[in-house]
Amino acid sequence: MYEIFEHTADLGLRIRAPSLEQLFADAGRALFSVIVAHLDAVRPIKRREFAVEGNQREYLLVDWLDELLFTFETQRLVFVEFDVRIDDDGLQATARGEPFDPDRHGTAHEVKAITYHALKLERRPDGWLAEVIVDI
């Protein structure tokens, strides 16, 4: 589960999930919900594998979202489904989506960067919580 919140001239992503892997998957979906106006129009027809190294979870989250944003910017792919596996060395993930179609998907915001400002990732009694600010 995720929600978007206003933050000065930026937008924040607040993600809650029962597991760390689900949190990273939901964070990916949250990012694309900020970029694409009609995320429900994205079909999971193309598959892309990701590997991100790192053992500090907060930075791993930023690096994961950076990788997704880079893929969108360079390959114009939008993703809607994510299978994420996290271990001591980093993250491996499979993302499913399709090439960006501005007519069908629409554009919500131009995300310039994932920031470290007010970055939060913490385990709670009911699962995990993360907050990430994106520069728009």
How would you characterize the overall build of this protein?
The protein is of the alpha+beta class and 136 residues long. It has one domain: Archease domain (Archease, Possible Chaperone, Chain: A, domain 1, 3-Layer(bab) Sandwich), CATH 3.55.10.10. It has three helices and eight strands. Strands 1, 2, 6, 7 and 8 form a five-stranded antiparallel sheet that branches. Strands 3-5-4 form a three-stranded antiparallel sheet. Strand 4 and strand 5 (90-99) form a beta hairpin. Helix 1 (20-35) packs parallel to helix 2.
Secondary structure layout:
Layout: E1 2-7, E2 10-17, H1 20-35, E3 46-53, H2 57-75, E4 77-87, E5 90-99, H3 102-105, E6 113-114, E7 120-124, E8 127-135
Antiparallel strand pairs: 1-2, 2-8, 3-5, 4-5, 6-8, 7-8
Helix pairs in contact: 1-2
SSE string, helix = H, strand = E?
EEHEHEEHEEE
The CATH homologous superfamily is named Archease domain
CATH fold title: Archease, Possible Chaperone, Chain: A, domain 1
**Architecture, according to CATH?**
3-Layer(bab) Sandwich
Concise structural overview:
This protein has helices at residues 20-35, 57-75, 102-105; strands spanning 2-7, 10-17, 46-53, 77-87, 90-99, 113-114, 120-124, 127-135.
Which terms would index this structure?
136 residues, alpha+beta, Archease, Possible Chaperone, Chain: A, domain 1, 3-stranded antiparallel sheet, 8 strands, 29% helix, 43% strand
